[in-house]
């Protein structure tokens, strides 16, 4: 589905950031844990990526992207470890707030190469089954914002294991990878 390397990274980065940010822990504040199971997220991204192929630019044009991920406590722990810097991805990661509204600010290694990216997001825990997010991200390679609505749709379907991440196409899950198979350190 995504043959261009920049497009593939961006396609994996957006849902991974949404899911990863939703599980990250700061020094003094943590977000409530997600319900294990199959989370489907509708995202709208607007990004400026100078020099990126037209296909990557089209993905960031504001058309909704529907991604999905099977999660459990071990996957949430892996994403927390990655996002909070235990594997060198983020130099700083701070969470503030409580109740149902949290703000997250992170400075992390830019997955598109060279330097860092800064993300600032607001998470609203609408219910145990829904998380709303709005974030802005800047780096030397891109500037953008993303709005996401992540909903729990039940237990992970047969054949889909914790960590599987992909896109929903015509109501069907199309796996891109498993979070466990992604590099542990920035590439």
Structure described in brief:
Helices cover 19% and strands 44% of the residues. The chain has helices spanning 5-23, 54-59, 73-83, and strands spanning 37-48, 65-71, 90-98, 101-109, 116-127, 130-139, 143-152, 164-169, 172-178.
Characterise this structure.
With 187 residues, this protein is α+β, with helices and mostly antiparallel strands. The chain has one domain (5-54, 68-180). Helix content is 19%, strand content 44%. It is built from 3 helices and 9 strands, in the order H-E-H-E-H-E-E-E-E-E-E-E. A 9-stranded antiparallel β-sheet has the order 3-4-5-6-7-1-2-8-9, covered by helices on one side. The relative contact order is 0.23.
Q: Specify the helix fraction band.
A: 10-25%
**Proportion of residues in extended strands:** 35-45%
Instruction: Give the mean pLDDT.
Output: 77
Note the main sheet.
Answer: 9 strands, antiparallel
Assign the structural class, choosing from mainly alpha, mainly beta, alpha/beta, alpha+beta, or little secondary structure.
alpha+beta
End-to-end distance, in Å?
22 Å
Q: What value does the Rg take, in angstroms?
A: 15 Å
| Elements, N to C (H/E) | HEHEHEEEEEEE
In one word, what is the shape?
Answer: globular
Number of separate strands: 9
Placed side by side, the strands forming the largest sheet appear as 3-4-5-6-7-1-2-8-9
The DSSP helix count reads 3
Number of domains: 1
- Low-pLDDT runs: 1-28
């Amino acid at each position: 589905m995504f043959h261009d390397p920049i497009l593939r990274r961006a396609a994996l980065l957006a849902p991974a950031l949404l899911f990863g940010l939703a599980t990250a822990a700061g020094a003094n504040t943590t977000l409530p844990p997600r319900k294990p199971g199959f989370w489907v997220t509708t995202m709208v991204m607007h990004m400026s990526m100078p020099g990126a192929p037209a296909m990557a630019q089209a993905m960031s044009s504001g058309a909704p992207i529907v991604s999905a991920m099977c999660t459990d406590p071990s996957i949430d722990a892996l994403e927390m470890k990655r996002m909070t810097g235990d594997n060198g991805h983020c130099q700083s990661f701070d969470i503030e707030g409580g109740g149902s509204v949290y703000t997250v600010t992170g400075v992390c290694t830019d997955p598109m190469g060279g330097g860092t990216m800064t993300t600032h997001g607001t998470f609203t825990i609408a219910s145990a089954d829904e998380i709303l997010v709005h974030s802005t991200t800047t780096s030397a390679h891109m500037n953008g914002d993303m709005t996401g609505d992540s909903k729990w749709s039940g237990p992970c379907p047969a054949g889909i294991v914790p960590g599987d991440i992909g896109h929903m196409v015509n109501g069907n899950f199309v796996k891109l990878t498993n979070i466990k198979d992604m590099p542990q350190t920035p590439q």
